[in-house]
Amino acid sequence: MAGFRIVRACSAVIALLAGGASWPVPAWSDEAVPAIEIDATGSGTPFRHSWEQAFGSDRADMALTESYLRNADRTREATGFRYVRFHGIFDDTMGIMAPDADGHMHYNFRKVDAVYDGLLAHHIRPLVELSFMPSAIGSDVLRRDGGLEPLVHWKADEQAKPITDYSGGTLWYRANVTFPAHMADWNALIRAFVAHLEQRYGAEEVRQWPFEVWNEPDQATWVAQPKMATYFALYDNTARTIKAVDPALRVGGPATGAIHWVGDFVDHVMREHVPVDFVSTHIYANDPPDLLRLPKSPANTGNTVCDATRTARRAIDRSGHPDLPLYITEFGADWDIHNGSADRPWIAPWIAQTVHDCDGLAPIMSYWTFSDDFEEQGVVANELPGAYGLLTTHGIPKPAFNAFALLHRLGNRRLPAGSGDGDVLATRREDGVIAVALWNRDADRARDAHLAFRGLASVEGATVIVIDRNHGTPAALFEAMGRPVSPTRQQADALIAAARLPAPSPAVDCRRARQCDVRLAPESLALLLVPAQPK
Length: 535
Fold this sequence. Notes:
The protein is an alpha/beta fold and 535 residues long. The chain has 2 domains: 36-44 and 416-530, Immunoglobulin-like (Sandwich); 50-146 and 166-409, TIM Barrel (Alpha-Beta Barrel). The chain has 14 helices and 23 strands. The protein has a 9-stranded parallel sheet, covered by helices on one side. It has a 7-stranded antiparallel sheet with strand order 2-16-17-18-23-20-21, covered by helices on one side. It has a 3-stranded mixed sheet with strand order 1-19-22. Residues 1-33 have low confidence and may be disordered. Keywords: Glycosidase, Hydrolase, Signal.
């Protein structure tokens, strides 16, 4: 990886950063190996923490659970995140609408209020995903009639009985993903919903909530055909209805998977003069190449998430509207819930690499997800590896959680870090501390980083925090416990303590005037903190 060189490091650093493991240290002289020069002479460039502005979660119902809100609090404390995005604010389980005996539609927003009241009480705002279709107004006739089929004679000598069949849905909770039977009913729902939000929470508050129309209409969560044309019709009606209630509200889409339709969407809304305030899409590192179809570009880094984000950004810019912000409302290393990516050590340096490579591409990137309160494929069977969450349902931190907590400590000004800074992020914080993230994605070999600071009088007092296979993970204790499927409260507390982000330790090889050597174990992430210089 560009910019790093193997250098001499003392055994104390090895013991500190590798959890006691021992690797051979080459007897190469410092003078023979170029250092990574971090230039602290200037103020640096803006470094917006876009990766921690928002996090994803399952569906609206889950926001009413104790574990969800507890994990939301812990994630907000660790990252300062502002928005949460989830599916299903209009799902049938939210009970928002039903016809009366005369066929007139009535709205009931009590559960909606409970969800949003709870989030706001925990200092988190919704990034409102307008989904899915209430069965009362969807185009699935069976579901619109309450799931009752015509009377059926199961046996010739028995009375005819109705049967219930919700096969028209998707995901474990059978979300209705059909087109509205009558667009006027959908528009009326959107109008009533938005007006209710402003009446309850105030227009100034709700104007800070982005409204995103649907979720992944290019995939299984939209069954209308043709997909793009019918989604555009839904978006047009939704956006115009929202703006009719309050022109200052923000609305966007297409919320597609694998950056699909981005250019088509922008072309459509501009051609048809449809309101749009942001463009949204999703990307995962393991999206199949034939699904993603990334064009070759010299700007591509080999990081799928950031290369795709860059491609989406270029598609917006080509439309002649470079002022439109791009929101990546879902991203992650792995879309497969069964792979357990969030609890494995490699995720920490992967997150750091993605933060590095995606810098400046999108003001909001929402990681999927912050909590294992997640039931798209059913109730998660095991505490670990669990689902995509940064935290298990008991609140046990995974390496992914600790990576976000560590990177949160970076500053908001990025400093130059050599000509090939592929594995280092150097920043200055508002308190004057120089915070430098370093990582090693190699699964087999340790690496040494030799840092030289320009513009600092001294690096004395520097500290380091490390996440690796032995630090910031519950893995060893979990194995010793026999991998309990559902830990007891006592076991969960012990696992939480074992997985806690390590405290800063003295960086013992930062004693020279302006240089530091840091050893990085395989699949590790480190944060070096150099104290503010006296003025």
